[in-house]
UniProtKB/TrEMBL annotation:
Its main location: membrane. It comes from Adhaeribacter pallidiroseus. GO terms for biological process: xenobiotic detoxification by transmembrane export across the plasma membrane. The lineage of its organism: Bacteria, Pseudomonadati, Bacteroidota, Cytophagia, Cytophagales. This is Guanidinium exporter. InterPro entries: EmrE-like (IPR037185), Small_drug/metabolite_transptr (IPR000390), Small_multidrug_res (IPR045324).
Length: 106
C-alpha cells in the first residue's frame, strides 16, 4: 500500500507544479489554492509512505515521478521544447527510478 501512496503523492507533485506555473507567482487565487492543497496532500501521502519505505527510495521516487510528470505536462500541455538532450535526461531519470525501486527491499 505504501507504494500506491507514494505513486499518488508523486502525481500530486505534478499537479502542484503545473498549478504553481498557472498561479503566476501566486497572484491568481484558484491556481494558488490548488497548488497549496495538492502540496499538502502530496506531502501527506509521502509521509504515510515513508512510515514503511526507506527514505532514499521514497524521496527519490517521489521527486522522480514529479520531475518526469512535469516534463511530460510541460511538453504536451504547455508546449515546451522537445530535443534529444531533454528526452535523454528524462530517460535517465526513469532508469534511475526503476533501479531504485528494484533495489528497495519493500
Amino acid at each position: 500500500m505504501a507504494w500506491i501512496y507514494l505513486f499518488i503523492a508523486g502525481l500530486l507533485e505534478v499537479v502542484w507544479a503545473y498549478f504553481m506555473k498557472q498561479s503566476a507567482g501566486f497572484t491568481r487565487l484558484v491556481p494558488s489554492v490548488i497548488t497549496i492543497g495538492s502540496m499538502f496532500a502530496s506531502f501527506g501521502l509521502l509521509s504515510i509512505a515513508m512510515r514503511t519505505l526507506p527514505l532514499g527510495s521514497a524521496y527519490t521516487i517521489w521527486t522522480g515521478i514529479g520531475a518526469i510528470g512535469s516534463f511530460i505536462v510541460g511538453i504536451f500541455i504547455l508546449g515546451e521544447a522537445v530535443n534529444f538532450t531533454r528526452v535523454l535526461a528524462a530517460v535517465l531519470i526513469i532508469v534511475g527510478l526503476v533501479l531504485m525501486k528494484l533495489s528497495s527491499s519493500n
